[in-house]
Amino acid sequence: MLGDIQEECVQPARCRRESASLEDAFYDVTSDVIILILEAVDGYRKSGPRLRIVREETGEGLKEHPFIELHDAVCAYLKGVE
């Protein structure tokens, strides 16, 4: 799954933003990779394992209490995400 995500992010990055700086390109690619990994954790990717993150103290899943979509929340913290 991680290899698929890498391929999905790197190949399009080679074609876009020809005039962008190398720094901007790195921010774009790493943001895309992080978001797609978090989509997998959130259960939105069809390929790869289903993941469930659980709080050790309570046994509750991350998507239970409080409900959170990591791939949506992370955008506020990443440079290069519009």
Describe what you observe in this structure:
The chain has three helices and no strands. The protein has helices at 2-15, 22-42, 70-73. It is elongated. The protein is an all-alpha fold and 82 residues long. The protein starts with a helix and ends in a 9-residue tail after the last helix.
Task: Give me the strand/helix succession.
Answer: HHH
As a whole number of angstroms, the C-alpha radius of gyration is 15 Å
Structural classification: mainly alpha
Please, how many helices?
3
Overall strand count: 0
Question: Quick one: overall form?
Answer: elongated
> Beta-strand level of the residues, as a percent range?
under 5%
Tell me the major beta sheet: none
Average pLDDT over all residues: 81
Low-pLDDT segments: none
Features:
48% helix, mainly alpha, elongated
Produce the secondary structure layout.
Elements: H1 2-15, H2 22-42, H3 70-73
